[in-house]
Amino acid sequence: MASNQWRDEFTWGHQALRADFAVAADGTPRLVRLAHPDDDRRAAPHSALPLVELTALGHGSGWSGPRFTGTALGARLGYRTHRTERRDGWEWLTVELHDPDTGLTAFVDLSSPTGVPVLRSRVRLRNQGREPLVVQSVSSLLLGGLPAPDDLDVHRARNDWLAECRWYAEPLRAAVADIHVDVHQHDSRAALALTGRGSWPTDGHLAMGALTERGGGRAWAWQVESPAGWRWDVGERAHGSYLALNGPTDAAHQWRVRLAPGEEFATVYGALALGSGLDAAIGALTSYRRAVRRPHPDHTALPVVFNDYMNTLMGDPTTAKLLPLIDAAADAGAEYFCIDSGWYDDDTRGWWDSVGAWQPSPRRFPDGGIQAVLDRIRERGMVPGLWLEPEVVGVRSPVAAELPDEAFFQRDGVRLAEQGRHQLDLRHPAARAHLDKTVDRVVGDWGVGYLKLDYNIVVDSGTQAPGDLAPGAGLLGHAHAYLDWLSGVLDRHPGLVVENCASGGMRMDGATLAVAQLQSTSDQQDPLRYPPIAAAAPTAVPPEQGAVWAYPQPGFDDDLITTTLGGALLGRIHLSGHLDRMSDHQLALVRDAVAVYKSIRGDLARALPFWPLGLPGWTDEWLALGLNVPGDRTAYLSVWRRGGPAELRVPVRHPAGRSVRAEILHPSSAEAGRAVWDRDGDCLTVSVPRTPGALLIRLTQDG
């Protein structure tokens, strides 16, 4: 770096991550290089970005266009000082910036788990001026100096109801055209931007993305940890590329906050992982997700959960229907039994718009009430669970009249209603007290040890309660309050296990995953359309948290039974199906799969995912998901065949050049398929003679 361009240079990081900083001639501090310490490739400091970009009323962007760079305030936030710290297995860095014109001070909080190549960042703003400042957007993480758009592919993941985690890629240059920057002496104003909005933050796309370098092998994968709105954009800058991560913004989410003198605001976190390829970068994100989440015994115990909903009772539980299912689930090896939706339904007009009191239905549980059913679950050696949708109150529920209007989402003084339901605002003490009373009754008095917390409506912009400047700010405030409430529940009931669900994976964001123990990956009911979801889910959630449905039915043939069971064995198996109607032979297939899962689950909690056939496509005939166990000579591979040739060569590079033993763990039938390791080709030849078929293979390196 030229001495006349940069000053106050400093380096921060650890053995897996190095970040180089410098103060530019204009006084703004910049992250000029982020890489592994062994990476000796030169940086491009001239394309580095300021550490913070933000817009505020009266202080707009520095140019026109959709990009989130070049803001007027960002260029004025000058370097003051920085502080480093090491604690609890993390490295920490805070860089302080200040704008003398407005009195705004920004603190960039950077952290990284020691030994993991992931940078986590957020920005805290403090108004130290004399006048209020209305902030319209503020970055969470910025990185310039990336390779040129011609050398990069950008990866995104569509995430729709029943069709989650569908990754696709395109050249970055296809989105950001080459305008011949040197002729115009100006960077392109174009950018590839992606946003998530509303109270379903991952409806449409996952709140993450990735860049991969053609020829160079490097990859950058990121997530925006927002339980509400978010945005990321990538574009061209100074013959290189940049990445900008944001929470909600005024332009995209109707979000803005007023900072009075002395007031503060903190952004959502953004996290960026480095890797030698896409698999390695997502593996680093997996390790990071484990490091930031709330500690809980469930993350290593991984008990088998049976849930009565999917393709089984479908929201119509009764004592008569549940008792034989409970016995069958226990005989199959389940350790938790969750009664899903409908247990509170005592209304012949339907329960959708009447929920909120969360009291059991006497009509559904006539003899001994729901407590008798919960007792039966415990008698069979399982932990009882219940489904709740805590944030909603039906318009016909008595709770809707008992709570004040201020306890619900509202706009212009009108209480909002979506699909016959009101949305609670967990910032209000009455809303929180209502839910605390509900959970303490269900968990404390009834002895329920598992809650499936669902959320099946979406409020697009948010709420504007007194004090909210804009609906998006109200939505983000509620979302943070919801996670704070959930943390309080887990503090009071530390043994409770919580599954996060929002019509499947519509709220599969990093902020929520850091609090909940499990994440529903989908509501997909077709066992032949679930495999691409199950195979790609570890891109968004660690495998031990990703709940994957396995719903064998008595009407399935053996191949379909073993396929739907086997496809869940490298996730968090969620049993369902009419096990009580199965033959002894069919039940033996279920018990065999559960036994295999229990034999490997200790490895799942520390394994890192890889995809030897690439990230799965929605209609791919063959799919594969691998889990590599760090520090061990073991890897697991799930392979699905939904069509195509009966044999396929699967490249597995982890044990390259070594002698490897390939063992099919599931199904146990020798006719289900075979797997043969080719040491010279560093690949596995897999045969699945019939469709559908799925194999779970263990690869063990010799020596």
Topology diagram in text:
Blueprint: E1 6-14, E2 17-24, E3 29-35, E4 54-56, E5 78-87, E6 90-99, E7 104-113, E8 118-127, E9 133-146, E10 152-160, E11 163-171, H1 172-175, H2 181-184, E12 192-196, E13 204-205, E14 208-213, E15 219-225, E16 230-237, E17 240-246, H3 250-253, E18 257-259, E19 264-266, E20 269-275, H4 278-292, H5 298-301, E21 305-307, H6 309-313, H7 319-332, E22 336-339, H8 369-379, E23 383-388, E24 392-394, H9 398-402, E25 410-411, E26 414-415, E27 421-423, H10 429-445, E28 450-453, H11 471-492, E29 497-500, H12 510-513, E30 518-520, H13 531-536, E31 546-550, H14 558-566, E32 572-575, H15 584-604, E33 608-610, E34 622-628, E35 634-641, E36 647-651, E37 660-666, E38 674-678, E39 683-687, E40 693-701
Parallel strand pairs: 21-22, 21-32, 22-23, 23-28, 28-29, 29-30, 30-31, 31-32
Antiparallel strand pairs: 1-2, 2-3, 4-9, 5-6, 6-7, 7-8, 8-19, 8-20, 9-17, 9-18, 10-11, 10-13, 10-14, 12-16, 14-15, 15-20, 16-17, 24-27, 25-26, 33-34, 34-35, 35-40, 36-39, 37-40, 38-39
